[in-house]
Amino acid sequence: MAQQPARFDVAISGASYAGMALACALADALGDELRIALIDRAAPPAATSGQQSNHAHDARAFALSAASRHLLQAIGVWDSIAHAAQPVTGIELTDSPLDAGVRPVLLRYDNVTGDGEAATHIVPAHLLADALRARVAAHPSITLLAPASATGFSASDATATVQLADGREINAALVIAADGRKSTLREAANIKLIGWDYAQTGIVTTVQHAHPHEGRAVQHFLPGGPFAILPLTGNRACITWSEDAREAARILALDDDGFLREVEKRFGGRLGAITLEGPRQSWPLSMHLARSYVAQRFALIGDAAHGVHPIAGQGLNLGLRDVAALTEAVADNMRLGFDAGDALALRRYERWRRFDSAVSTATFDGINRLFSSDATLLRSAREFGLGVVDRVPALKRFFVEEAAGLTGDVPKLLSGKRV
């Protein structure tokens, strides 16, 4: 006799940052009776083998907004990473040619909200991933299916069925794709994308520097793309760098000494001598936005729904906004007696998130195009615009509150409230 598919209230494909955060948020909001399946392609490290985390070699660091910090605090994750979170006290922007001997700061502002908290914290990616995974493991209502991958799904008025690569099937009232930019389940749901590739490559590494950064982040706008210096705890910084794809290929082919010289050329020398402290990583840059965020008993979150240029470091923050909105929409409806995949909750989630995501995607795309040009007239216009903002405190405060994720119709979790 064929084995009956396991039954869950919610099935999440992808144990990404957004996927794990959503599983925790739903479990916290709706209690231990909620049955959640979290499908992860990677096998979890054995607790007693000394095996490293799946994320141990991730060189990235995330610029987490104040709203994202509130969410992580609400789901019990923040306290375990707070020791490694560097508050960003101020931000400086420059716009200069690569060979400029001096890079004047065109815009400088304090990165503190009206409530006196840092609008941004920089957190190493691998520490956040491990903290989320530990929180997932602590929830009795979350079943981790790993290693496993979802290959397709179908939905009816009554339920949805997810097919796994090993031949198993699971049933759920709601299926959520958190499986990244090349989402298999998004394709299975026949949801199309708007998007394009950039002729740029993203590069990330960590450096140590001689002088204290004092919590200040720096964004150099260079012709090949933005070069961001994100402060980490200690005299360290995460370099998040967008470069012309052909030039990036040349740079990435260099040995460590040659690669460090290229970093130094862009770093600006303001923090003294630098040394490489971690591996380098790279990936091609692109933009996409899903034409719909929901289908029958189905929703997209995170990179499965939207992929933005890393120029403002907002990719994960947008994903955590999805988490907060979907958690609230589903929890509110389930408390009224509906199941997790009810269409009213999904439509509410889409209305809440798609417009904001579209505006953010278009804004980051436009900023990248505007600043990745060395044309004299454009450079003059940019310098004039940044100079105006630098002289208008109200505009600076608006940018800080916007980056903190505290403007507009904010879901409860982003304000640090329980759902």
TrEMBL record:
InterPro entries: FAD-bd, FAD/NAD-bd_sf, Ubi_Hdrlase_CS, UbiH/COQ6, UbiH/COQ6_monooxygenase. GO terms for biological process: ubiquinone biosynthetic process. It is an enzyme of class 1 (oxidoreductase). Its cofactor is FAD. Residues 8-335 form the FAD-binding domain. SUPFAM superfamilies: FAD/NAD(P)-binding domain. PANTHER family: UBIQUINONE BIOSYNTHESIS MONOOXYGENASE COQ6, MITOCHONDRIAL. This is 2-octaprenyl-6-methoxyphenol hydroxylase. It comes from Hyphomicrobium sulfonivorans. The lineage of its organism: Bacteria, Pseudomonadati, Pseudomonadota, Alphaproteobacteria, Hyphomicrobiales.
